[in-house]
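Key result, reporting period 2: structure in, sequence out.
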């Protein structure tokens, strides 16, 4: 089974591409969903986050306070590295499980939607890597509009990742998302022509 990495920068359209892939029948494993799974109440991941980040890291119900944790890690690179060190090995192990399950089910190609693919040196894990790209100024504008951020907060979030132009240079395939979803879908179909069709199609 071909294992294709799908990445991009915040607000470049990666999640939209993942949705379009699913609509076309392709399996997509989502690293963000795996990240939620490894910190569910009662898991070792949840206990580790609570231990390192304290009571402020959880809500009254015991679930992780994602907004509070995001505030902490996006303004403190050491805290961000600490959180990633706690969670990324668990996320990667779970991704390997999902990959094996999809291969066993007979899929010829599957995608792994992972924001920090290049930051975490994951490129060797994939047969190909697709980067969803838009110019940095458009990325900032979309992030401010989508999340209702001020310029400073938006810049912090963008700066926490590798620059999108660098990611595009490292990728095997660059999928440009500079206009609308219709154009993005058409560009995606051109990319998908090089891969096996999804099971049942």
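The corresponding designed sequence is given below.
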């Amino acid at each position: 089974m071909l294992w294709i990495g799908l990445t991009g920068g915040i607000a470049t359209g990666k999640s939209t591409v993942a949705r379009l892939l699913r609509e076309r029948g392709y399996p997509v494993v989502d690293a963000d969903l795996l990240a939620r799974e490894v910190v569910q109440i009662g898991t070792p991941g949840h206990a580790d986050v609570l231990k390192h980040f304290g009571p402020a890291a959880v809500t009254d119900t015991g679930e992780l306070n994602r907004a509070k944790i995001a505030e902490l890690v996006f303004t403190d690179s050491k805290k961000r590295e600490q959180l990633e060190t706690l969670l990324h090995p668990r996320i990667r192990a779970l991704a390997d499980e999902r990959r094996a399950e999809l291969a066993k089910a007979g899929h010829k190609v599957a995608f792994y939607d992972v924001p920090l693919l290049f930051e975490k040196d994951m490129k060797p894990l994939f047969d190909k890597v697709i980067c969803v790209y838009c110019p940095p100024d458009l990325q900032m504008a979309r992030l401010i509009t989508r999340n209702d951020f001020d310029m400073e907060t938006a810049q912090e979030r963008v700066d926490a990742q590798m620059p999108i132009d660098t990611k595009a240079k490292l990728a095997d395939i660059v999928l440009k998302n500079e206009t609308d979803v219709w154009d993005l879908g058409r560009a995606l179909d051109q990319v998908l022509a090089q891969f096996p069709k999804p099971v049942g199609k």
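The first strand starts at residue 2 and ends at 8. The radius of gyration is 17 Å. This case is discussed further under Risks and Mitigation.
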